[in-house]
Structure formats: structure tokens, C-alpha cells
Design goal:
The protein is α+β, with helices and mostly antiparallel strands. It has two domains: 153 residues, no CATH class; 176 residues, Heat Shock Protein 90 (2-Layer Sandwich). It has ten helices and seven strands. A hairpin with a 2-residue loop joins β6 and β7. The relative contact order is 0.08. One of its GO terms (cellular component) is membrane. It comes from Allosphingosinicella flava. Keywords: Kinase, Membrane, Transferase, Transmembrane, Transmembrane helix. InterPro entries: Bact_2-comp_sensor_kinase (IPR050640), HATPase_C_sf (IPR036890), Sig_transdc_His_kin_internal (IPR010559).
Length: 383
């Protein structure tokens, strides 16, 4: 968008000068023909030198105007006034001499007025051209201000988009150290307490998961089906550690599986559910990831709850939940990413006896309705 505006600023003065002097010469020729002073074709031929000189002088004045714009007003205005007066006198000379040559060489009826070189005639013609040049400079100045405003607006928009993308990227990559820290702790626990094969499986799955995570564009969105698959891969890693203690349920309806969501937006919620739900008890915990559509809204839920409602069947040691430290990084990260991508997306959390739910409410959209008119994807559109 910025480059076309640059081309517009460079070519607009030429187009403007040509149109302006076409209008000036046509108006002058029309008036001359209407008062019966000369034939149309002859008037057109005589006006060609004035047209060429007028266009050249207008472009010359505009270049000097741009160059002088950096000067203080006390230097700018006197210099522009002198330039306008000088160009007006020069074009008046071209006009009067061209008409004089036409009267002597081509059309003798013009001699009565064309040979008049009185000071009053010269000043009158020069004053007309002075107003023409002043009008031209005023319009070119207004056009340059408008173009610069649009250019600056486009540049600001591009910079804002780049800043938002950089911020989204930074937020996305905050997840990797956080997730990696927790997973390495899980691997360390498995090495100490579990079979060696389980630890090896966790390392292999972690490597595969991180490869897919790092290869993706952090600022883009993906279809929900792809996001759910990534979360399932993450949960496979944790299931090696927790085994039958973690019961995973994924419920993504066909009507929402092609909906767009920010890439890895569910990962910190799933990670929190594992850390604060499954890891805090030795009893079975059901971790459920679901998605549904409510008119034009997409509702994503991550819920962890005790696998049984009969608390009496759970050993006392299992019901004693050790307090785990939490930095709140995951939930804050999700809120910030939603704020960057949408104007009306929300993250709600609800604690209830035996469990916890994190719910994301965001606009429902698909790839088909997220492209702009030029086919370019928006910042939070799938790429």
C-alpha cells in the first residue's frame, strides 16, 4: 500500500499540470473563438507553445516549492512569490510573442491587437498567469499534504500490524519454555519412579511436538481440528507419566472443526488442567476438551474434574491436594493473545467442587470469511 502512494506523489504533479493547462488553453481559445477573434484551428496551433511552457513552468515551480518547503516561512514565501512572478512574466512573454508571430505570419486580422506591446497589456496577461500559477501551487500543495497523510496512515497501519504480529509472536513463544520446563520435570519424575521405556517415549514425543510447534507461524490462526490434534499430541506426552490417572476426552463437533482459532491458544489451558488437576491428586481425573458453536460465537472449554463423584471411594491420601505454585503466566498469556487478535474475545474461568473449567468465547470464523477484498489474510486469519 505504501509503494503505490509513493508513485502517486511522483506522477500526480505531471498529470495535474497537463490537465490544468489543457483547461486554461481550451478556455482561452473558446473565448477567443466566441468573440470572433480567430478560427479555432489557428487558435489551437498558436496555444501549443503556451501549453508546453505552462506545463514545464508548473513542474519547475512545484519542484522548487518542495525544495523550499524545508526552509523557514520567512525565506519560503518571498522566494515563492519571486518564482511565481518570474514564471508569470515568462509565460506572458511566450503568449504575447506567439500571438505576434501568428499575426505577422499567419493571420493578418490579428495585427490590430496582437502588435500591441503596451505595458498595461503585458501586466494584464502576466497577472492572469500569476493567478493560474498560484492556483496550481495551492492545489499541488493540498494534494501533497493529502498524499502524505495517506502515506503516513498506511505506514502507521503497517507498523502497527508488524508490532501486533511481533507481540503475538513473543507471547506465543513464551509457551515453549513454560511447557518445556513442566514436561522436563515430568520426564525427570518418570526416570526416577517409572519404567525407562516410558521416559524414552516421553522424550521422543516431546521432540516431535516441539518440532511441530516451532515450525508453525506463531502469529497465525489454524483450524480448530488442527489445534485439537496438537493438544492431543501434548496430552499423549503427559499420559505416559500419569497413565490411567488421566482420562482424556476430546469433543469437537463437525460444525466447528473448521473454525479458526489462534495457534496453540489451548495449550496453556490444557497444561494448567494437567498441572493443577491431574498432578495434584493420585485419583483418576477426567480432562475434557470441547468446542461448540453459539450462533456467531465459538466456545472452547477445557475442564478437569474428578473421574468419580463419589468422594468416599477416593482414598484420603488421594483427596489431599498439595498446593502447587502457579505464576499465572498461562492464563495471562491467553488473555493477551485474545486481545491482540479480537475485539470481543473473553477467557472465563470457573472453579467448582472437584474440578475447574477454563472457557474461551471468541467470534466464530472460517478461512472463507477471514480474507480481505484483495485476498490477503488478516493478522489473525489463517495463512
Amino acid at each position: 500500500m505504501i509503494r503505490p502512494l509513493r508513485r502517486l506523489r511522483s506522477h500526480a504533479p505531471t498529470r495535474f499540470a497537463v490537465v490544468l493547462w489543457c483547461f486554461v488553453n481550451l478556455l482561452s481559445d473558446l473565448v477567443t473563438v466566441l468573440i470572433g477573434r480567430g478560427p479555432p484551428l489557428l487558435m489551437f496551433a498558436i496555444s501549443i507553445p503556451v501549453f508546453a511552457a505552462g506545463v514545464a513552468a508548473t513542474l519547475f515551480l512545484n519542484r522548487l516549492r518542495v525544495a523550499l518547503a524545508r526552509k523557514p516561512a520567512i525565506q519560503y514565501w518571498p522566494a515563492m512569490l519571486l518564482l511565481l512572478v518570474g514564471c508569470s512574466i515568462a509565460i506572458a512573454f511566450v503568449d504575447i510573442m506567439g500571438t505576434r508571430w501568428g499575426a505577422l505570419s499567419l493571420y493578418t486580422p490579428w495585427r490590430a491587437w496582437a502588435l500591441d506591446l503596451s505595458l498595461s497589456r503585458i501586466l494584464t496577461v502576466a497577472l492572469i498567469y500569476f493567478w493560474v500559477f498560484s492556483f496550481a501551487m495551492a492545489l499541488l500543495w493540498a494534494g501533497s499534504v493529502s498524499d502524505m497523510a495517506r502515506y503516513n496512515a498506511a505506514k502507521a497501519a503497517a507498523m502497527e500490524t508488524a508490532a501486533l504480529r511481533a507481540e503475538a509472536t513473543a507471547l506465543r513463544f513464551q509457551l515453549n519454555p513454560h511447557f518445556l520446563f513442566n514436561t522436563l520435570n515430568s520426564i525427570a519424575s518418570t526416570i526416577v519412579d517409572g519404567p525407562r521405556q516410558d521416559a524414552e517415549n516421553m522424550v521422543i514425543r516431546l521432540a516431535s511436538f516441539l518440532r511441530a510447534s516451532l515450525a508453525a507461524d506463531p502469529a497465525r490462526t489454524v483450524i480448530l481440528d488442527e489445534e485439537a490434534a496438537a493438544m492431543e499430541a501434548y496430552l499423549d506426552i503427559e499420559k505416559v507419566r500419569f497413565g490411567e490417572r488421566m482420562i482424556v476426552e476430546i469433543d469437537i463437533g463437525r460444525d466447528v472443526e473448521d473454525a479458526l482459532v489462534p495457534h496453540f491458544i489451548l495449550q496453556p489451558l490444557v497444561e494448567n488442567a494437567v498441572k493443577h488437576g491431574v498432578a495434584r491428586t493420585s485419583a483418576p481425573v477426567a480432562l475434557r476438551l470441547s468446542a461448540s458453536r453459539d450462533q456467531d460465537r465459538l466456545i472452547l472449554r477445557v475442564t478437569n474434574r474428578a473421574a468419580t463423584d463419589d468422594q468416599a471411594t477416593i482414598p484420603a491420601a488421594a483427596r489431599t491436594l498439595p498446593k502447587l505454585a502457579s505464576t499465572g503466566l498461562g492464563l495471562d498469556n491467553v488473555r493477551q493473545r485474545l486481545a491482540l487478535s479480537y475485539n470481543d474475545a473473553l477467557l472465563k474461568t470457573v472453579a467448582f467442587p472437584g474440578g475447574f473449567t477454563a472457557e474461551i468465547d471468541l467470534p466464530f470464523s472460517t478461512v472463507a470469511n477471514m480474507a480481505d477484498p484483495d485476498g490477503q489474510q488478516l493478522l489473525h486469519a489463517a495463512e
